[in-house]
Design a protein that fits this description.
Low-confidence stretches: none
Number of strands: 12
CATH superfamily of the largest domain: Response regulator
Number of helices: 8
CATH class of the largest domain: Alpha Beta
Mean pLDDT: 84
Shape: elongated
Strand order of the largest sheet: 2-1-3-4-5
Order of helices and strands: EHEHEHEHEHEEEEHEHHEE
Radius of gyration: 18 Å
Structural class: alpha/beta
Length: about 230
């Protein structure tokens, strides 16, 4: 049975969320204190960590950093009351796989949970290489023309979905569902913002005709194989 560690010190949020997760068939453990979350999440007994940023003893960002430093590969869904995009980026760079802003819709959060667990269950050992971009899933490493490039989690997932379907147009809705777990994700420019960051990091900021990643306006994106 899939095990979820819920790190939330607000009982008004933790109790109903734990019940909802249990109804979905997950085994749920609730923990309030940051240092205890690190120990429990690092022991390998949980499949997913739902992590509030504002924990006593150690905030969620530091919890996430410590887990990644220890090499823990648990999927992390971050909860944050902050709405500034910079705060989201900091969370992703700390090692979170996804984030949900408070207040959240329960249906949206459950969709993100399912998407994260699906991605965690997929075997990732096949190296992919297209147009000078090499993606090594087992090491979660990306090289562009032989040089390693550091990508945040969402940027990596975005590149992977494009390289998996190289030469094909990937619909915006497909990307939102597979990378963010919600085709109805509000916040407007989330996908475009991450695409801009990805292009910058892989050196794909030339003219539209020269880009590896082509924008099919109003439809989606295509990773060119030429």
């Amino acid at each position: 049975m899939t095990s979820v560690l819920l790190a939330e010190d607000d009982e008004a949020i933790a109790a109903p969320l734990a019940r909802a997760l249990s109804r979905e068939g997950y085994t749920v453990t609730v923990e309030q204190f940051g240092p205890a979350v690190v120990e429990q999440a690092a022991d390998g007994g949980h499949d997913l960590l739902i992590l509030d940023l504002g924990l006593p003893g150690m905030d969620g960002l530091e919890v996430c950093r410590q887990l990644r430093t220890r090499g823990a590969d648990i999927a992390v869904l971050m909860l944050t009351a902050r709405t500034d995009e910079v705060d989201f980026v900091v969370g992703l760079d700390a090692g979170a796989d996804d984030y949900v802003g408070k207040p959240f819709r329960l249906a949206e959060l459950m969709a993100r949970v399912r998407a994260l667990l699906r991605r965690s269950a997929v075997s990732e050992d096949g190296v992919l290489e297209v147009g000078g971009i090499r993606l090594e899933p087992a090491a979660r490493r990306v090289l562009v023309n032989g040089i390693e490039v550091g990508l945040a989690n969402k940027e990596y997932e975005l590149l992977k979905i494009l390289i998996d379907r190289a030469g094909q147009v990937v619909l915006r809705e497909t990307i939102m569902e597979e990378v963010w777990g919600d085709v109805e994700l509000r916040g407007s420019k989330t996908l475009d913002m991450h695409m801009s960051w990805l292009r910058r990091k892989i050196g794909d900021e030339g003219s539209a005709a020269e880009r590896r990643i082509a924008t099919v306006r109003g439809v989606g994106f295509r990773l060119n194989v030429d």
